[in-house]
Amino acid sequence: MNRMLGTESGLGLATDGAWETLVGLLDRFGRAAEEHAARFDVGISPNEVRKRIGPILGDLRRIQHAGWDALPGGNTLRECLERLRELAPNTYRKTVARIAGVSVIHAHFRSRMTEADIRRSIVASSLYEMTQDLLDDLLDGGGWTFPEAVRLYDRCLRPLTDPTVAMEGLEADLADLMGPEQDGLERILAEATQELRGLLDSGDERVRRLLAKGHEALTRAQAATIYFRRETLDIDAMRDIATGLPSPDPSLPWLDRLAIYASWPSNIALFDAGFASSPVSNRELTAHARAWLAFDEAISFLEHFAGAEADVREGVVNVACLLANLPLAILGEGSFRGFAPRELRSIFEKATECLVHAIHEGMAGGGAPDDYGFLALMIPTIIFAFSRTPSEQGDTFFRTLAPAVRSAVEDARETSEVTSPG
Fold this sequence. Notes:
With about 425 residues, the chain is mainly α. It is built from 19 helices and no strands. It has a single domain (about 20-420), classed as Orthogonal Bundle (Farnesyl Diphosphate Synthase), CATH 1.10.600.
């Protein structure tokens, strides 16, 4: 339930020239982040933002000029996107925008990847994002039981990490789960899963194990979101499922656990660790994975905040609604017009806490504070741009976020200077 249920991107995406669109969107996200860095003093300069976005923009432009044939898995990605555009145009528009958004993840390990692996990483993240968006939208359409939703996710995700799972019959199995109005979508999922399996096959076994664990939790968390809908609303069932989700902190409340695993960009961050030309140390890999769990939690709270009005109109609550303690009666009233200032503050403080926690977790493995501070800035920037969040709400959030990120980044720099030799 990572996307805002029942909403569409307000980005006005073109339906042709996918790479040109991706370049334009990433450039737009980067310029917005530079503006936020300049206005709110988050501890990351506009120039630092530009230095990290620029190489990824260059990668996308080179791919645009080289064409689909020059990409490992490129033709499968093209065919899947074309079919998605035809069968589910709203999902297609959202997916292209989100592919641009998740491309910032590649900045972290990019310097440790070959040109070929950078391209493979971009295709893998694009196929994965498309798959997750489509699965998410299928659940959002309603009519699923919890076991059916688990089976849908498991059938698409388990083959990516378990080489013993047979691919034969995947499309037919998925077709059995689809309704008549979803005809043809099973082929997109099956082809994307097959291609992803090949792209990830040569990766680091440690990464594969982390992905398998993350996919098990993602499957249960996403399946649990069927209980957010008015017709199947069951907070107790959701709590029971979420309480059993894994967490580095055993005291973490169930809603935080659900928010972590209802998002999936952390898995894309792990892909890149597997594509690095030399193995990432165990210490760094563990810290990076934990940092991205915190980023995922922030993503869920911010995306669900941004989509709350549309969700409630469609008879759906989400994690932001629950965090703000909105009464469940709003689903039948049609009276929800946005969060009150106190409710906004609780959501923004929680998201800020998650983003700062991610910075600390990443640095615990030796990560550069600016690398994680950059992500803490980019994540809300991209979500608010994608969702067309009113500027006054965005400004309120960045006024909350900026001093916390600045303090985390500057403290880490000072510590590094003290402990560095010489």
